[in-house]
């Protein structure tokens, strides 16, 4: 308990209080489980917020880290050529719609960069008033100032106003609303193919197809934010695949290096042709250690058998969630291993009970619990979750 007490005391005394944490300290992990200092196991349905797709203590991830660390070089900046980041870019291009990749350090940075690129394309077109960005209700694209401006939630925006100008909000999954909002002044439309923080709401195929057509009609860039829903999470490599639509840009981050900080912007050559040296940059982006690990992660997740496993277990998860007989569940939704239950009560009470039962849960809005576990999870783990969740919902008000 000494380590636990010291860690909690130091956090409360020295760390800026932007998070509310439970009163245990996680010290190790294996597979889909995390353990606190007392040895208590927690089945992890958060995965570092949809990050740790290969779970914990993965031998392949460890080997990729050790290989790069053994060279003695972790960082040289983007002033010089390095092999791992070029290899990773090749993998991402060969397994997507894209022709080029820009690396950064987080999802918010990826969205910031994509917005800049869109405005650069518009600037090169000499359309001086083509600067607007269209986003959608329920969206979450990050907490830095540009990304926050396209995250239309008062709770996040109000204390930090004024927001970046030129942002308009349309209704998610409403084609008529999109038609009214996307105009000749629109430089970019940014959308999550499956909304994460907004409550796990899939975009319809018809909606994404309509956005593609509207962007084509108005010479606007279509940006898919797959930071949470991409790279295997929905059972296909990219969440937008089922729609048959391809974007001009796609942003990635969370699972790309299984816990190491990385983001990426995938772009078509038409976008790349507008970007010049000096238009954007980052000191730490594309570092050797993180891109060597990310290269391993992409190679693992892109395999058909891996994606088939996500589809199979994801379907089983949805089936089992539908079977939970509780008056507190209003709706079950999601795709692959990105699922949610919307509740008639506030989510934090269920999350807190989860700690007692040895499971880690996370919300997606005030009344929604989302399930974004490591993608290596098995059906037996789903059964364990359902047993514990049933108990939690039966006793949550006690």
Please describe the topology of this protein.
Blueprint: H1 2-14, E1 26-30, E2 33-36, E3 41-44, H2 47-50, H3 59-69, H4 83-94, E4 100-104, H5 107-124, E5 132-136, H6 145-149, H7 154-157, E6 167-170, H8 175-181, E7 186-191, E8 194-195, E9 201-202, H9 205-217, E10 221-225, E11 249-252, E12 263-267, H10 269-272, H11 288-301, H12 304-323, E13 329-335, E14 338-343, H13 347-357, E15 359-360, E16 362-363, E17 368-371, H14 379-395
Number of strands: 17
| Named CATH topology of the largest domain | Aspartate Aminotransferase, domain 2
Provide the CATH architecture of the largest domain.
Answer: 3-Layer(aba) Sandwich
Helix fraction, binned, reads 25-40%
Query: What CATH first level of the largest domain would be assigned?
Result: Alpha Beta
- Arithmetic mean of pLDDT: 97
Q: What does this protein look like?
A:
With 398 residues, this protein is of the alpha/beta class. Helices cover 38% and strands 18% of the residues. The strands form 4 sheets. It has a 7-stranded mixed beta sheet with strand order 4-12-11-10-7-5-6, with helices on both faces. Strands 1-2-3-15 form a 4-stranded mixed beta sheet. It has a 4-stranded antiparallel beta sheet with strand order 13-14-17-16, covered by helices on one side. Helix 4 (83-94) packs parallel to helix 11 and helix 13 crosses helix 14. The longest helix is centred in the C-terminal third of the chain and has 20 residues, at 304-323. The radius of gyration is 21 Å and the shape is globular.
């Amino acid at each position: 308990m000494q380590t636990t007490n010291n860690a909690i005391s130091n956090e409360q005394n020295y760390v800026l209080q932007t998070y509310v944490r439970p009163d245990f300290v996680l010290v190790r992990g294996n597979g889909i489980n995390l353990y606190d200092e007392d040895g208590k196991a927690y089945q992890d349905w958060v995965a570092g917020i949809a990050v740790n797709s290969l779970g914990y203590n993965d031998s392949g991830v460890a080997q990729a880290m050790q290989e790069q660390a053994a060279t003695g070089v972790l960082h040289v900046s983007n002033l010089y050529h390095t092999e791992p980041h070029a290899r990773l870019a090749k993998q991402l291009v060969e397994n997507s719609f894209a022709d080029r990749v820009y690396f950064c350090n987080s999802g918010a940075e990826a969205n910031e960069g994509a917005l800049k690129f869109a405005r650069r394309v518009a600037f090169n077109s000499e359309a001086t008033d083509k600067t607007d960005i269209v986003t959608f209700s329920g969206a979450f694209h990050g907490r830095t100032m540009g990304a926050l401006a396209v995250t239309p939630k008062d709770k996040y925006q109000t204390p930090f106003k004024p927001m970046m100008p030129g942002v308009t909000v349309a209704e998610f999954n409403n084609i008529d609303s999109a038609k009214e909002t996307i105009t000749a002044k629109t430089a970019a439309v940014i959308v999550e193919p499956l909304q994460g923080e907004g409550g796990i709401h899939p975009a319809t195929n018809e909606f994404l197809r309509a956005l593609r057509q509207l962007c084509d009609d108005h010479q606007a860039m279509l940006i898919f934010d797959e930071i949470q829903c991409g790279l295997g999470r929905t059972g296909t490599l990219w969440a937008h695949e089922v729609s048959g639509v391809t974007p001009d840009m796609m942003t990635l981050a969370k699972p790309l290096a299984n816990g190491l900080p990385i983001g990426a912007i995938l772009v078509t050559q038409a976008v790349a042709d507008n970007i010049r040296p000096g238009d954007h940059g980052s000191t730490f982006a594309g570092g050797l250690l993180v891109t060597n690990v990310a290269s391993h992660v992409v190679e693992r997740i892109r395999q058909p058998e891996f994606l088939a496993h996500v589809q199979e277990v994801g379907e089983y998860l949805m089936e089992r969630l539908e079977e939970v007989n509780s008056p507190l569940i209003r709706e079950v939704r999601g795709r692959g291993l990105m699922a949610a239950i919307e509740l008639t009560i506030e989510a934090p009470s269920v999350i807190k009970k989860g700690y007692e039962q040895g499971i880690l849960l996370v919300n997606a809005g005030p009344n929604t619990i989302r399930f974004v576990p490591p993608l290596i999870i098995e059906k037996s783990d789903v059964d364990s979750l359902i047993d514990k969740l049933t108990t939690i919902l039966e006793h949550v008000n006690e």
